[in-house]
Design goal:
Length: about 230
């Protein structure tokens, strides 16, 4: 089970929407909508790991939705359609879809396709207010850190330290640099050991996600995205 992953299912056919949702929610956190416009808004406001998108919808069809999503996000898109023609498949792929399934399909096939696109899309994901990497999620608007979708209690400096490292993933920062950057005008309030202390307590609070904060001996710290 991978409840850290969020799947958006978009289909205006209620029966199919419910069928797909009931199967996928055994493995993933599922968000649904029957509207193409709403799907685009959801992708803008939430970190979504995969979009399962029906082609034949009223008002705005799946091709138009796919095109709009690609303007704002590189989230993997799996398109569903009752039409098996090669032209439709090529059109969807050219618009940015990652995979294409023809109805009727088995739920197991859909699950396998989702797992495949997820494997190809590992990495840090961002929206305007949210940053996520694996089980770690930071809500910048609310200054909240989540691990496995559960909020953790951190201090203001611990939050600032984690967000800075995550947004500069892969870069190594010395204790001096982190101290100046995070404490700034309050730098007189601590020493370089303050950085080490905050890293230590932050790792404890991050639980399984502590593995992403790496110590580079003799230099400092970094957030490692390849873990």
């Amino acid at each position: 089970m991978n409840k850290t992953k969020r799947i958006l299912v978009v289909d205006d056919e209620v029966e199919l929407l419910e069928l797909v949702t009931s199967f996928l929610e055994k493995e993933y956190y599922v968000v649904t909508t029957q509207s193409g416009d709403d799907a685009i808004k959801i992708v803008e406001s939430l970190i979504v790991d995969v979009v399962v998108l029906d082609v034949m919808m009223e008002m705005m069809d799946g091709f138009a939705v796919c095109e709009k999503i690609r303007e704002i996000s590189q989230v993997p898109i799996v398109m569903l359609t009752a039409r098996s023609g090669e032209e439709d498949k090529i059109r969807g792929l050219k618009l940015g879809a990652d995979d294409y399934i023809v109805k009727p399909f088995s739920p197991r096939e859909l699950l396998a396709r989702i797992e495949a696109v997820l494997r190809r899309a590992q990495g840090i994901q961002t929206t305007k207010n949210i940053v996520r990497f694996h089980e770690l999620e930071i809500d910048k608007s609310g200054r909240i850190i989540y691990v496995q979708r559960e909020p953790i209690n951190v201090t203001r400096k611990e939050y600032d330290l984690l967000l800075f490292l995550l947004e500069h993933h892969g870069q190594v920062f010395s204790r001096d640099h982190l101290h100046d950057r995070i404490w700034g005008m309050d730098a007189h309030m601590g020493t370089l050991r303050t950085v080490d202390t905050h890293i230590k307590t932050l790792r404890l609070k991050l639980q399984s996600a502590e593995r992403f904060i790496k110590t580079v001996w003799g230099v400092g710290y970094k957030f490692e995205v390849d873990s």
